[in-house]
Amino acid sequence: MLGSADSDLPRVYRACTEGEHMKADLETLASLAKRRGFAFPSAEIYGGFASTYDYGPLGVEMKRNIRDSWWRRMVQSRDDVVGIEAAIITNPAVWRASGHVAGFTDPLIDCLECQSRVRADHVENNTCPVCKTVGRFTEERQFNLLFRTFVGPVQEDASTAYLRPETAQGMFVNFENVQTTMRRRLPFGIAQIGKSFRNEITPGQFIFRTREFEQMEMEFFCEPASSLEWHTYWKQERLAWYQTLGFNPEHLRLRDHAKEELAHYSQATSDVEFQFPWGWGELEGIAHRGDFDLRAHATGSGHGLSYFDQEKNEHIVPHVIEPAVGVDRLMFALLCEAYDEETDAEGEKRVLLRLAPSIAPVTVAVLPLSRNERLLPTAREVYGALRPHFRTQYDDAQSIGRRYRRQDEIGTPLCVTVDFETIDDHEVTIRERDSMAQIRVPVGGLVAALNERIDALTPKG
Ligand code: GAP
Questions:
Q1: Which helix (H) or strand (E) holds 66?
Q2: Does 175 share its domain with 61?
Q3: How many domains does the chain have?
Q4: Residue 112 contacts residue 137 (beta carbons within 8 Å)
Q5: Within 13 A of 345's CA, how many CA atoms are on the CB side?
């Protein structure tokens, strides 16, 4: 289990030790994200748009790193998983067969006092979460979360289509295509990363729950008899991956869904939960979907979906284990986990993101000591030499101290400082984000020295 591996982590990744976890609240993180170019309220010059965000230059780099890490682990480094990219708007019959048109609903009630519309299952003690009035609600109604649109020039029921609410169904309807073209035998998985859309009644909490979001999902098809074992395997494997991203194992836990909580397709689900600023919340769902989806699409399409087991000489309908996580929600969890504040001997506050090097938007910043013209050619030369190897940024504005702080706040693990001595001795200073330790190394060996430090700072999983 993850918990026991904590002592293997480098000290810097145990930033939030017991009792001091979560140094930032939601507002602090959203404000940092905006100030430093991670995420902005969408269309802000028009007053924004409810719970919708646009990602800035650092946000897109971080999201890309998250996706790359997931894809590498779930697809490229395995022999038993392949990837696809399915359409966002597809045949609406898919969503009828999957149960989403009829059953993808949240229970909704209105407060008669303040007219707020809230999810019935989010109401505690019969009290309106907005105005705190007790017991003044309308009857419960079911509200469908699918976004509708129209395909073609006529806006009528016959042309209604849906924006996909999950990427998963793209994998089920392509089960046969992938299995036959890739000549796959059980067990094997199909993975996908892409946008999903849900007309959430109560979005909010920054990028934790939005109406447009990105999912990373994998459907693992296996024999029914081994499905419980695979469910256990994927729970452990997914937790191990989170460790490589720098999560403290104590801030993650697995929670099994109670029977009444299970989604319509699920036989058993465990959530990977993270301690968000407001408490434990779902980061990832790991569902045992049984044969629900393949059977549903076989019935819906009239096209049998099964697997021929050559050894047993029989057709079986595989069972499915599905790990599914949101890119945006994970990015938010990583920002929560990485945020730290320190006060130095002079009482000056330092804000830093202790992001793992693989996730940080910038891995190496090149900072000339000043804008003095004598330094410029050497600093540019060093920058040019590092760019092919790392995600680099060049910054020469303001004092060196302020630039270090700026890089700390965006989570850059290493800075390289070019000073006047560099011109003569061809050495530069590497400064580490977490310890603020500085060492001098020859420019000739800089790439190797930086890689060595990145390796030391990388959590192992
Ligand atoms: N195919 C199964 C599925 O979609 P889910 O639990 O509804 O399961 C999986 O979603 C993951 O997608 C969640 O654990 C969460 O990380 C992310 N997610 C779901 N709804 C989201 C939303 N409205 N905003 C951001 N992320 C969301």
A1: helix 57-71
A2: yes
A3: 3
A4: yes
A5: 0
Q: Say if CB 215 and CB 325 are below 8 A apart.
A: yes
Residue 297: name the closest of 6, 11, 100, 55 by CA. Answer: 100
CATH at 293: 3.30.930.10
Q: How far apart are CA 140 and CA 108, in angstroms?
A: 6
134 secondary structure, DSSP code: B
Asked whether residue 169 falls in the same domain as residue 226, the answer is: yes
Q: From the CA of 223, how far away is ligand 1's center (Å)? A: 26
Distance of CA 340 to the CA centre of its chain: 20
pLDDT by residue (tens digit) across 239-283? 999 999 999 999 999 999 998 888 888 889 999 999 999 999 999
Q: How far apart are CA 440 and CA 447, in angstroms?
A: 13
Omega before residue 187 within 30° of 0, cis: yes
Q: How far is the CA of 217 from the centre of ligand 1 (A)?
A: 10
* Domain boundaries, position 123: 105-144
Q: Based on the fold, state whether residues 361 and 311 are members of the same structural domain.
A: no
Q: Ligand 1 center to residue 241 CA distance, Å?
A: 18
pLDDT of residue 12: 28
The ligand 1 atom nearest the CA atom of 207:
25
pTM of the predicted structure, to 2 decimals = 0.92
Pocket test for ligand 1, best of 98, 198, 213 (most atoms within 8 A of CB): 213
pLDDT above 80 (res 203): no
The set of protein residues with a Cβ atom below 6 angstroms from ligand 1 is 166, 168, 198, 200, 209-210, 213, 215, 217, 282-285, 322, 324-326, 328-329
Instruction: Give burial (CB, 10 Å; 0-12/13-18/19+) of 19.
Output: exposed
The letter for the amino acid at 37 is G
Residue nearest to atom 5 of ligand 1 (CA): 285
Choosing from 334, 368, 400, the residue where a domain stops is 334
- The closest of 333, 236, 231 to 290, measured between CA atoms, is 231
pLDDT in tens, 407-453: 999 999 999 999 999 999 999 999 999 999 999 999 999 999 999 99
Reported as a pLDDT band with limits 50, 70 and 90, residue 184 is very high
What value does the mean pLDDT take over residues 148-155? 91
Task: Please give the average per-residue pLDDT across 378-401, as a whole number.
Answer: 97
Q: Which amino acid is at 376?
A: L
Q: Which residue has a Cα nearest atom 11 of ligand 1?
A: 325
Ligand 1 pocket test, pick from 208, 214, 215 with the greatest ligand atom count within 8 Å of Cβ, gives 215
pLDDT at 166 over 80: yes
- The rounded Å distance from CA 326 to ligand 1 centre is 6
